[in-house]
Design goal:
alpha+beta, four-stranded mixed β-sheet, 9 helices
């Protein structure tokens, strides 16, 4: 079901905005010191708070990152669209958002994301929380990695000439994404973010 919602949201948003999509930008695939520029101290602080370690200046070649969509609307800067499912909401994500929500332009309600993250009392198990060494070893590694990657997407987009990251949570759309009035509902949702 989560991928179905993601695909439906991406398709609907591209239709409503008259957008096309393109691939994840190279600066986000394995961002290190060079890609982060003046945001490097913030990125280091977030990583350290999540792991207790120092982030390497360059990411290993095996590190990969893709986003749900990069929207291209004629006459506008590109914009990353992420559809956040329940595993994106947890204490790690609240921690990262608190570090930059007032300093980085965002196309979503960071306070709502924090509230939903704070309200969660149990993390998903299995592959959702597996260790991801060497950057995110130990229990909950994948949860920390996901929170870090989400933060990088939000923080780095404006630095690279992108519009603020647009995030849509599955809980915002799951009840109507397949209904006949979904286009109007998506227009209303987007009007509060863009």
């Amino acid at each position: 079901m989560p991928k179905e919602i993601e695909y439906a949201v991406v398709g609907l948003v591209t239709d409503v905005l008259g957008a096309s999509t393109t691939s994840t930008p190279n600066w986000l695939v394995r961002p290190g010191r060079a890609e982060c520029g003046e945001r490097w101290p913030l990125v280091c602080a977030i990583y350290s708070e999540l792991t207790g370690f120092k982030v390497p200046d360059e990411m290993r070649k095996v590190e990969r990152r893709t986003v749900d969509a990069v929207l291209v609307v004629p006459g506008s800067p590109p914009r990353i669209l992420e559809v956040d499912e329940r595993q994106h909401f947890n204490d790690y994500r609240a921690t990262t958002l608190r570090r930059y929500k007032d300093d980085v332009p965002l196309a979503f309600d960071a306070d709502l994301w924090i509230a939903r993250s704070d309200a969660k009392t149990k993390l998903e198990g299995g592959g959702f929380g597996r260790p991801v060494p060497p950057l995110f070893p130990g229990e909950g590694g994948r949860h920390r990695q996901r929170a870090f990657r989400d933060a990088l997407t939000d923080i780095l987009a404006p630095r690279h000439g992108f519009a603020p990251t647009l995030r849509i949570a599955d809980f915002e759309v799951k009840d109507w994404i397949n209904l006949p009035d979904r286009v109007d509902r998506m227009r209303r949702l987007l009007s509060t973010r863009l």
